[in-house]
């Protein structure tokens, strides 16, 4: 019974673990792990380990790929080896979750039972069920420099804007509650398509890649700021009698 319980737990873990990547990075099915080479998640799509969520850096936390599932992980989360059938049963570097699933060995979990925080929603998973998502640039208070990121308004949380550093990150670095904000258009400046979120003294200035994308974001943010949670509500109002 203990062996059955462990097998079921590993299967459930991987149903969640391999779900939610973008369509250009198809996830392996559970039964294919180790039997078929995965398509690796590209390094530039993540800024943090897809397992422990710690940010990468060039010195102490570098990027590695799990040879079983293709996730981008840190050295600590990929300090395991398992024999992979697609590579002639040779030992390969794998993440902890793949190691547990493929070998049946248990690993002491230091994060078990920890609930997901409000920002700990994977960008790919949230984007697949979003009202709008795309890359934008958020300018600083001086309106000069800015940070480019991946911005999402989820369907299941349509009054909040989530900001990720990259479109495959497993944790957002900040969020902005949109309810009550005013959306302000700004004239084009140096070929930059600018718009703002304004509430009292709080001002956020965004740069979109195109004028069309800017308009889409302005419409989506205006709906959220007004408390409209479904696009069809606005469409019905616009249609009139």
TrEMBL record:
Keywords: Cytoplasm, Cytoskeleton, Guanine-nucleotide releasing factor, Metal-binding, Phosphoprotein, Repeat, Zinc, Zinc-finger. The keyword Kinase does not apply. InterPro entries: FGD1-4_PH2 (IPR035941), FYVE_RhoGEF_PH (IPR051092), PH-like_dom_sf (IPR011993), PH_domain (IPR001849), Znf_FYVE (IPR000306), Znf_FYVE-rel (IPR017455), Znf_FYVE_PHD (IPR011011), Znf_RING/FYVE/PHD (IPR013083). It is found in: Cytoplasm, Cytoskeleton. One of its GO terms (biological process) is filopodium assembly. Pfam families: FYVE, PH. This is FGD2 protein. The gene is Fgd2_1.
């Amino acid at each position: 019974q203990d062996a059955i319980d462990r097998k079921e737990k590993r299967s459930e873990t991987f149903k969640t673990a391999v779900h939610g990547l973008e369509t250009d990075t198809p996830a392996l099915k559970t039964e294919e792990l180790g039997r078929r080479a995965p398509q690796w998640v590209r390094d530039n799509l993540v800024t943090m380990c897809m397992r422990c969520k710690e940010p990468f850096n060039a010195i102490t936390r570098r990027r590695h790929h799990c040879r079983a599932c293709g996730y981008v992980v840190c050295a600590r989360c990929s300090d395991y080896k398992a024999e992979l059938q697609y590579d002639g049963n040779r030992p390969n570097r794998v993440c902890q979750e793949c190691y547990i699933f493929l070998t049946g060995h248990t690993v002491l979990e230091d994060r078990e039972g920890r609930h997901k925080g409000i920002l700990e929603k994977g960008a790919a998973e949230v984007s697949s069920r979003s009202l709008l998502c795309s890359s934008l640039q958020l300018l600083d208070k001086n309106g000069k420099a800015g940070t480019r990121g991946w911005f999402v308004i989820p369907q299941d949380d349509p009054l909040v804007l989530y900001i990720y550093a990259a479109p495959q990150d497993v944790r957002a670095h900040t969020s902005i509650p949109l309810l009550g904000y005013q959306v302000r258009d700004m004239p084009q400046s140096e070929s930059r398509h600018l718009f703002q979120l304004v509430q009292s003294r709080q001002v956020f200035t965004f740069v979109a890649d195109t004028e069309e994308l800017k308009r889409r974001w302005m419409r989506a943010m205006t709906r959220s700021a007004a408390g409209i949670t479904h696009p069809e509500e606005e469409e019905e109002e616009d249609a009139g009698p």
